[in-house]
Design brief:
Layout lengths: L1 E7 L2 E6 L9 E11 L3 H8 L11 E8 L10 E4 L2 E2 L5 H4 L10 E2 L11 E5 L3 E3 L6 H5 L1 H13 L23 E5 L3 H13 L3 E6 L2 H10 L6 E3 L5 H8 L3 E6 L4 H9 L1 E9 L11 H9 L3 E4 L19 H14 L8 E5 L4 H10 L6 E5 L1
Parallel strand pairs: 10-11, 10-13, 11-12, 13-14, 14-15, 16-17
Antiparallel strand pairs: 1-2, 3-4, 3-8, 3-17, 4-5, 5-9, 6-7
Helix pairs in contact: 4-5, 4-10
Length: 370
């Protein structure tokens, strides 16, 4: 088969490799679409992967072509939870699989989706309906990361969405919520917060295309701030005395300090952005956390309770929540697929990597389609 193979730092090539042979409890998935994640750029060009040579790519969807363990999955279109938990550690036994102590990971520790085929454990597969496109299904992973951050913030997003309990507006819908950093995750946060019924969502961005996507979602310009044009503190003071919830989606010391300084007493700071480098904490920022009794929340990955042998997982995990909301989100006139700004075939994929590495063009989500 064909794949984009990372042989060493900065050495990625479109190559012929052996098609994987699925083991027991695995399925052979023919990849239909795979998104390029921001984390793929340092992995490919700066730090390398945990194991090389490696086929990167963890945001992907496809169709099951072979599965001896669960033949009923053959022919099914699926989304893929990329983390492969050990099932033995304390976190796994408590169903916090995203915090597994000994996990494997498609696309960073073992071969992933920048290939024609991937061998995936059946547990990690989530069948999807025909109304979801291949590219939308490849965006399930970042969508679920956004929903996980919302839940870690303690927001009352509807756990019963898509179930018999129906969908209700949260009782804390009037909280002031700020998102700083409107890349793919930040924009998906804005989309799901709006869908969940929160009324006071404010976004701090730094690219014109981010503003355009927010307007397409239905956000008023008065709820948006370009921090290239001035101090975001002025924007926050104009809207509220401080954020009840502040999502920090950049991952720098400056952004972290801004989040703390702009959050109201007893508010919550949710740290979403991957750190770009070592980070430091000034004494006055630490004092602010203490004196305002702020809550700092870390979030990583998403909750997935597994899909053993094709059975339906409980609707309470992030992946099933997202699936339950997508049709309603589309009715609002905005699809997650609207965030795709560039599309490439597998053999052209390195053009997408270079756009992200060099920031040669404004982009949100770059998708590889097969």
């Amino acid at each position: 088969m064909k794949a984009q193979v990372l042989y060493d730092i900065g050495e990625i090539s479109y190559a012929d490799v052996e098609k994987p042979v699925p083991r027991a409890n695995e399925a052979l998935v023919k990849v239909r679409a795979c998104g390029i994640c921001g984390s793929d750029i340092p992995r490919i060009y700066k730090t390398g992967a945990h194991n090389m040579p490696l086929i990167p790519g963890h945001e992907f969807s496809g169709t099951v072509e072979e599965c001896e363990t669960a033949p009923e999955l053959v022919g099914k279109r699926v989304g893929i939870f990329p983390l492969k938990p050990c099932m033995e550690c304390a976190q796994c036994k408590n169903k916090h699989y995203e915090m597994c102590s000994n996990y494997d990971y498609l696309g960073s520790r073992c071969d992933g989706g920048f290939a024609e085929y991937v061998a995936v454990p059946t547990w990690n597969l989530l069948p999807i309906s025909d109304e979801i496109t291949d590219s939308e299904a490849a965006m399930l992973e970042p969508m679920c990361v956004a929903v996980h951050a919302m839940r870690k913030a303690g927001l009352e997003i509807c756990a019963g969405a898509g179930t018999q309990q129906g969908y209700t507006t949260p009782s804390d819908a009037n909280k002031s919520i700020f998102i700083c950093g409107l890349g793919t995750i930040g924009l998906l946060l804005a989309m799901f917060l709006r869908d969940a019924g929160y009324r006071n969502i404010y976004c701090i961005y730094n690219k014109g295309i981010q503003m355009e996507k927010l307007v397409d979602m239905g956000f008023a310009l008065s709820n948006l701030w370009d921090y290239r044009e001035g101090d975001p503190a002025d924007f926050v003071r104009e809207k509220t005395s401080g954020a009840d919830v502040f999502f920090e989606c950049i991952g720098t010391s400056e952004a972290y300090e801004r989040a703390v300084s702009l959050t109201a007493p007893l508010g919550t700071v949710v740290l979403v952005g991957n750190p770009a480098s070592d980070m430091s904490l000034k004494r006055e920022v630490y004092w602010k956390i203490l004196r305002n009794q702020l809550k700092l929340v870390g979030t990583w990955n998403s909750s997935f309770y597994g899909n053993p042998l094709g059975t339906n997982a409980p609707a309470l995990d992030d992946w099933n929540y997202v699936l339950s909301r997508l049709s309603e989100i589309r009715k609002s006139g905005f699809s997650p697929e609207n965030l795709i700004t560039h599309r490439f075939t597998l053999d052209e994929m390195q053009q997408g990597l270079e756009i992200m590495r060099d920031k040669a063009d404004e982009y949100i989500k770059i998708m590889v389609e097969y």
